[in-house]
């Protein structure tokens, strides 16, 4: 087989390389340091025809082939991996589904400005509970006649919030699993569509990445992409093409690192000759060159398959997995060749090293690529019933919660209902702990997120903490970026873990990283002005409202008129369990951990067939979650 790029391909490579060398390379370090987005350069991509490379000229594209697109991403990534993915996510993820599945009206309205580079595109699939299991989408779009009402959150979205047009996946029929997912074209600026913070990432820092938040967003019927229920297939088909882009990004990063290390190895003299001539180094270079060559062949041949409308799903997965795995090895060896110098900030190999890692993770982890490849080789394993069920029944990151919202009446009435519920759960507000109690030892915490606003509002939080008998905590940005509280007071995956009883989250949106720090809280209360904030799904009680209004009312309601007495040693309050709708048969709950035996699912691990009633379970059967015996189950 002879794979050869055409003169046209090489001319394009030259053009993109020149642009990348002169306009991106000089600022790459600064973009990396400042998390800066190369807006000016992206605008120029539009003028150069890069933003619509593989789309027909009649739709504003450059009318080139898929290999040209791969070469462009490769060349940009050769100097800056972040810039490479901006183009890749725009062309393959944000634009391609509209090109492939859009109506003529949708193409005229959205594809044309995207292909011309007048607008930037993005793709909203990933969610907290739908990463590798992309079919677990919990964002919903409810048919309201002339429009759909979109609610939910998407995380880790490349090009957000810079992008103007988003292809978003939401469930229109939560009972139908992947066949109930639909795709929509959503515009930035629509009412109820907002963004979370830009993520502070290890690498590809010049690309922007943020959360999408949909709160009762009205999506006109004509913005349904494809048919209702076709969304998952649209997403999968889009990702097949996207994986060629990420493979090219990995190839470009690896190529940049290789060239840099090669140049250094030829200059650096040790033991009387350039290290490139030391066998230890020349063998590294030989292996790196071989991996680059094989990656390139795999990527270009996959691009050819796509161009020729041949099946290419498996090959795209192979290319993405192989090129990104090779990229990891190449950047590692490149930095090793540089030795201590490569470990310093400002060296391009240091940046390539960090930029490379994401290529094994996004657009499907390399483990998922192997699932796809294997499914093409051995076929798909039979679906387990329990897997299907989990799509529509996922608890939030903090586990099952009561999710009781106090929506009725005035703010005072909502607060009164909240206090009554907390007192009913056993909280005694005549006692308290000092507000500087370490989070890990605190029985109660009042924690603030960025929704707290200016620093003077911290006085409201401190007053609330005092009246709630709680310590003060915060989300990470409040401690790290705003510096309202010391660093040891932020709660989350990388911070403190709260294992006490009552956690009152004020103005915290509920990013996954924060929720992981509070999953052991007995009771979570959320106060936030966005009804769609993820924190509500993870809370026992919630009030939608401005924290500046609610916090003083809550402090007042918890004020017993006397100084708080010292709280006795903490007794862990039993975690509240959500009320369930009674099914038309008896169900049984484990007294130890709250696991609910579901007759419809059975218990696959213990070879209990779906449909087996609890009464028919063998006596030796044990709770699959905590190991309690069958007799520890309570009939409900
Ligand atoms: N093209 C078209 N249809 C496809 C398809 C494809 N490549 N792959 C699967 N389908 C169809 C199947 O035929 C099936 O159809 P039916 O319902 O008619 O039978 C349906 O989709 C469901 O398929 P599966 O049963 O195989 O689906 P699954 O739930 O088992 O999931 C998976 C398969 C491969 C694991 C998939 O979930 C997946 O790819 N996960 C990874 C998600 C991913 O890549 N996320 C990346 C996010 S975007 C990103 O990262 C961008 C960025 O930042 C730059």
Task: Report on this structure.
Helix content is 40%, strand content 15%. Helix 4 packs antiparallel against helix 6 and helix 6 packs antiparallel against helix 7. Among the domains are: 163 residues, TPP-binding domain (Rossmann fold), CATH 3.40.50; 48 residues, Rubrerythrin, domain 2 (Single Sheet). It is of the alpha/beta class. It contains 17 helices and 21 strands. It is globular, with a radius of gyration of 27 Å.
Secondary structure category:
alpha/beta
C-alpha Rg, in Å? 27 Å
- From the spread of the alpha carbons, the general shape counts as globular
Strand order of the largest sheet: 11-17-16-15-13-14
Mean pLDDT: 93
List how many beta strands DSSP finds. 21
CATH class of the domain at 404-566, anyone?
Alpha Beta
Low-confidence stretches: 388-393
CATH homologous superfamily label of the domain at 404-566: TPP-binding domain
Distance between the termini: 67 Å
Q: Count of helices?
A: 17
Helix content: 40-55%
């Amino acid at each position: 087989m002879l794979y050869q790029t055409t003169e046209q391909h090489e001319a394009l490579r030259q053009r993109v390389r020149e642009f990348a060398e002169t306009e991106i390379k000089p600022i790459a370090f600064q973009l990396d340091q400042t998390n800066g987005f190369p807006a000016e350069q992206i605008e120029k991509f539009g003028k150069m025809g890069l933003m619509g490379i593989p789309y027909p000229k009649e739709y504003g594209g450059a009318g080139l082939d898929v290999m040209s697109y791969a070469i462009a991403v490769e060349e940009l990534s050769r100097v800056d991996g972040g810039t490479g993915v901006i183009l890749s996510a725009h062309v393959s993820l944000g634009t391609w589904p509209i090109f492939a599945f859009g109506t003529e009206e949708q193409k005229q309205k959205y594809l044309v400005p995207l292909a011309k580079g007048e607008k930037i595109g993005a793709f909203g699939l990933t969610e907290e509970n739908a990463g590798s299991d992309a079919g677990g989408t919990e964002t919903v779009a409810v048919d309201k006649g002339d429009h759909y009402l979109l609610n939910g959150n998407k995380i880790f979205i490349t090009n957000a919030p810079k992008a103007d047009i988003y292809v978003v996946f939401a469930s229109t029929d939560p009972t139908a699993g992947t066949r109930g997912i639909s795709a929509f074209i959503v515009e930035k600026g629509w009412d109820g569509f907002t963004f979370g913070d830009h993520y502070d990432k290890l690498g590809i820092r010049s690309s922007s990445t943020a959360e999408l938040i949909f709160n009762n967003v009205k999506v006109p019927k004509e913005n349904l992409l494809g048919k209702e229920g076709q969304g998952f297939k649209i997403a999968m088909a889009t990702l097949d093409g996207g994986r060629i882009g990420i493979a090219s990004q990995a190839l470009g990063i690896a190529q940049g690192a290789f060239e840099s290390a090669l140049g250094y190895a030829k200059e650096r003299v040790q033991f009387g000759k350039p290290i490139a001539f030391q066998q230890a180094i020349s063998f590294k270079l030989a292996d790196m060159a071989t991996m680059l060559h094989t990656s390139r062949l795999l990527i270009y041949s996959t691009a050819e398959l796509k161009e020729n409308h041949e099946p290419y799903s498996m090959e795209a997965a192979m290319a993405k997995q192989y090129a990104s795995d090779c990229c990891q090895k190449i950047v590692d060896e490149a930095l090793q060749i540089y030795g201590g110098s490569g470990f310093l900030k400002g060296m391009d190999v240091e940046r390539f090293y960090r930029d490379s890692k994401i290529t094994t993770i996004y657009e499907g982890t390399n483990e998922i690529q192997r699932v796809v490849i294997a499914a093409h080789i051995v076929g798909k394993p039979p679906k387990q019933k329990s897997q299907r069920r989990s799509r529509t029944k996922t608890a939030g990151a903090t586990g099952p919660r009561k999710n009781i919202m106090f929506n009725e009446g005035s703010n005072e009435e909502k607060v009164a209902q909240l206090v009554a519920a907390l007192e009913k759960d056993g909280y005694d507000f005549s006692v308290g702990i000092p507000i500087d109690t370490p989070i890990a030892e605190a029985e109660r915490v009042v924690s603030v997120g960025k929704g707290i606003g200016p620093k003077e509002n911290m006085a409201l939080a401190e007053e609330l903490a005092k009246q709630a008998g709680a310590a003060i905590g915060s989300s990470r940005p409040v401690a790290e970026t705003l510096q309202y509280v010391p660093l040891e007071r932020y709660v989350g995956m990388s911070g403190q873990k709260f294992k006490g009883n009552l956690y009152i989250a004020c103005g915290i949106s509920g990013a996954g990283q924060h929720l992981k720090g509070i999953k052991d809280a007995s009771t979570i209360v959320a106060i936030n002005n966005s009804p769609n904030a993820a924190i509500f799904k993870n809370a026992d009680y919630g009030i939608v409202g401005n924290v500046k209004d609610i916090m003083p009312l809550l402090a007042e309601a918890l004020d017993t008129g006397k100084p708080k007495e010292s709280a006795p040693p903490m007794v862990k309050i039993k975690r509240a369990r959500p009320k369930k709708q009674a099914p038309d048969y008896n169900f049984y709950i484990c007294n130890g951990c709250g696991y609910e035996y579901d007759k419809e699912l059975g218990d696959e691990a213990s070879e209990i067939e779906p449909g087996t009633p609890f009464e028919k379970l063998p006596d030796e059967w044990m709770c699959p979650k905590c190991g309690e015996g069958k007799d520890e189950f309570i009939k409900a």
